[in-house]
């Protein structure tokens, strides 16, 4: 599933109207219709009816029931009505009767449709008409004078007037939203610039305070559709009916929380158009892994394979006070299916870690006897790495004198793929502009920073990174020619060719010491098994999250999950 910015959506919108000749009014009709349909589902869920869709009104050609429902964690395809299921004549009569039967229930529903002056408002007006037709009590609330509406939205305004649907103008007429069964937020969509101005701001505050469930059209009004940042105020939606393509801001926090359940509805804009228009950002799902990244998600192993077939990972990490980090990465690399894993530790640490995981091979790489890494170990590491398929550096490494030169040697002289995490990233950050002089690598580099490490790499604040995670991750990946995994809720995987993915697996319980080390081991293990950097990073992040979810079920609460549980759940 593609994810777009407001600007990209406008281009796709224009292309559909100008080049494909699908009228803007048709798109608006489909949009409003989809919103009405989701409102009906919400009402049906509340009153226990088995069918909340618009029944006999369903227009099969606009694919009104073809939705991707995105409930924070999972995406499921909901029921589809295809042309093959067009009701015959007798069924039409039955459907009409069923609708009449439903009126008694729907009439108890009083929905307020808050309408802005742009096309988002136009979508809301179409929804108001369909909900009225379905038997709901509907009141349209114009945020500003209806005279200010233009184009398709003005046409919808005239239809509403002709139908005699009750209308209120905010600020002119009395309004009490506290009695609402529900509210449709069609105030501001992708055309929003900056924080909501008056009277939108007051209306948003009243809607939030009403306690009624809010259904947002396209995006919650007040949300930055590109970054997920919340303006003050911002609608807190129960459901967001996103039109045509998933907007980035609905997936990134804090926007993801303000949006509630996100339902992406087809409105007539061809789903494949995004690729043709150069959109390179996708939600990371099983389908994305299979179709966009060509990953064998079933992880078949060749029947006559041997441990050499599945690669050999070398993990360089762990020091006296942080030996566990290296161990977790090495164990995760094993559990994800690597043929062999060697864990290189400072010599002084070696006696203490013998036997901690009997499946691991151990190597003493740093001559220092104090259990800490030192710059002299580069030569030994390079020799060890020669016979290994992947080198993962960083978990539990610590900082030491000469570490920049040490990392530079690994970067320049190790010819296989390199995974850098934790202090290896801090070393990279401290290299600063000197990095430009490092010899470009022919093999892949995967960096796995958390937001703090990303901030150091970019020389900006963590808050700045978090304000637009997707953009920062993509820019760094492109300019440095690396695959970058920006960790945190909704991890971003950015590839050097500009493609990027946003993950939705996992949960807040995975914010626990060592979880990142486990991810490093998983990605290194997948690289050793022959996946390329984009595949290993994306699939690794996805599996890491799924394993975290499994671990939460085993432990009966997300908060009880520790890093070792994620490895076991793999
Ligand atoms: N995806 C599609 O192809 C379709 C989308 N539709 C809907 O159209 C909106 C986008 O419509 P647009 O007219 O461009 O913008 P908005 O409705 O979001 O509103 C712009 C409107 O509001 C004023 N404004 C802008 N910023 C602010 C602010 N901070 N405070 C107050 N007022 C503001 C501005 O002056 C404009 O007048 C999209 O989201 C979909 O819902 C189509 O209907 C179908 C095709
Ligand atoms: K909206």
UniProtKB/TrEMBL annotation:
InterPro entries: Carbohydrate_kinase_pred_CS, CARKD, Nnr, Ribokinase-like, YjeF_N_dom, YjeF_N_dom_sf
Binding site for K(+): 120, 185, 221
Residue intervals passing through the bilayer: none
Any Pfam family hit: Carb_kinase
A single GO BP: nicotinamide nucleotide metabolic process
Co-factor(s): Mg(2+); K(+)
GO molecular function: ADP-dependent NAD(P)H-hydrate dehydratase activity; ATP binding; metal ion binding; NAD(P)HX epimerase activity
Domain called YjeF N-terminal: residue spans: 9-275
Keyword Metal-binding carried by entry: yes
Enzyme Commission number(s) of this protein: 4.2.1.136, 5.1.99.6
Domain YjeF C-terminal per the UniProt entry, residue ranges: 290-570
Keywords: ATP-binding, Isomerase, Lyase, Metal-binding, Multifunctional enzyme, NAD, NADP, Nucleotide-binding, Potassium
Cofactor binding description: Binds 1 potassium ion per subunit.
PROSITE patterns: YJEF_C_2, YJEF_C_3, YJEF_N
Signal peptide extent: none
Residues given in the record as AMP binding sites: 487-491, 516
Residues binding (6S)-NADPHX: 119-123, 189-195, 200, 218, 325, 396, 450, 517
HAMAP family linked: NADHX_dehydratase, NADHX_epimerase
Record protein name field: Bifunctional NAD(P)H-hydrate repair enzyme
Species of the source: Paenibacillus kribbensis
Species classification: Bacteria, Bacillati, Bacillota, Bacilli, Bacillales
Name of the gene this protein is made from: nnrD
């Amino acid at each position: 599933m593609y994810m777009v910015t407001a600007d990209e959506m406008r281009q796709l919108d224009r292309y559909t109207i100008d080049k494909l000749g699908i009228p803007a009014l048709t798109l608006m009709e489909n949009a409003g219709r989809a919103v009405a349909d989701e409102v009906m589902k919400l009402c049906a869920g509340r009153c226990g009816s088995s069918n909340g869709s618009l029944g006999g009104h369903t227009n099969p050609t606009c694919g009104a029931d073809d939705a991707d429902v995105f409930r924070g964690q999972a995406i499921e395809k909901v029921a589809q009505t295809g042309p093959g299921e067009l009701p015959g004549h007798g069924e039409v009569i039955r459907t009409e009767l069923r609708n009449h039967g439903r009126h008694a229930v729907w009439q108890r529903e009083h929905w307020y449709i808050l309408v802005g002056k742009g096309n988002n408002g136009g979508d809301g007006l179409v929804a108001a008409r369909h909900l009225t037709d379905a038997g709901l009590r509907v009141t349209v609330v114009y945020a500003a004078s209806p005279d200010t509406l233009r184009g398709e939205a003005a046409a919808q305004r005239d239809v509403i007037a002709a139908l005699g649907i009750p209308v209120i103008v905010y600020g002119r007429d009395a309004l009490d939203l506290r009695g609402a069964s529900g509210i449709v937020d069609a105030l501001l969509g992708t055309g929003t610039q900056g924080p909501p101005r008056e009277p939108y701001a007051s209306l948003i505050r009243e809607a939030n305070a009403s306690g009624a469930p809010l259904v947002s059209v396209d995006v919650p009004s007040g949300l930055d559709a590109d970054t997920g940042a919340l303006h003050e105020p911002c609608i807190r939606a129960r459901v967001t009916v996103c039109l045509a393509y998933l907007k980035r801001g609905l997936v990134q926090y804090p926007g993801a929380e303000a949006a509630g359940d996100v339902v992406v509805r087809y409105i007539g804009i061809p789903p494949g158009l995004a690729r043709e228009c150069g959109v390179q950002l996708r939600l990371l799902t099983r389908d994305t892994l299979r179709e966009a990244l060509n990953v064998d998600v079933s992880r078949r192993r060749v029947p006559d394979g041997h441990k050499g077939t599945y690669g050999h990972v070398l993990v360089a990490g762990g020091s006296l006070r942080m030996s566990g980090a290296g161990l977790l990465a090495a164990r995760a690399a094993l559990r994800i299916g690597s043929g062999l894993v060697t864990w290189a530790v400072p010599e002084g640490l070696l006696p203490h870690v013998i036997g901690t995981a009997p499946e691991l091979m151990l190597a003493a790489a740093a001559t220092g006897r104090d259990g800490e890494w030192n710059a002299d170990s580069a030569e030994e590491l390079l020799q060890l790495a020669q016979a290994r398929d992947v080198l993962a550096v960083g978990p539990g490494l610590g900082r030491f004198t000469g570490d920049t030169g040490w990392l530079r040697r690994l970067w320049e002289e190790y010819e296989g793929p390199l995974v850098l995490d934790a202090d290896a990233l801090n070393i990279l950050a401290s290299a600063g502009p000197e990095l430009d002089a490092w010899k470009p690598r022919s093999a892949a580099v995967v960096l796995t920073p958390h937001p703090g490490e990303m901030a150091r790499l970019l020389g900006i604040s963590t808050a700045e990174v978090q304000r637009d995670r997707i953009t920062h991750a993509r820019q760094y990946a492109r300019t440095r020619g690396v695959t970058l995994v920006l960790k945190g809720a909704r991890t971003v995987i950015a590839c050097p060719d500009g493609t990027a993915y946003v993950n939705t697996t996992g949960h807040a319980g995975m914010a626990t010491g060592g979880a990142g080390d486990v991810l490093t081991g998983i990605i290194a293990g997948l690289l050793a098994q022959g996946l390329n950097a984009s595949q290993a990073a994306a699939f690794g992040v996805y599996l890491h999250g799924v394993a975290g979810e499994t671990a939460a079920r085993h432990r009966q609460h997300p908060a009880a999950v520790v890093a070792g549980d994620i490895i076991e759940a793999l």
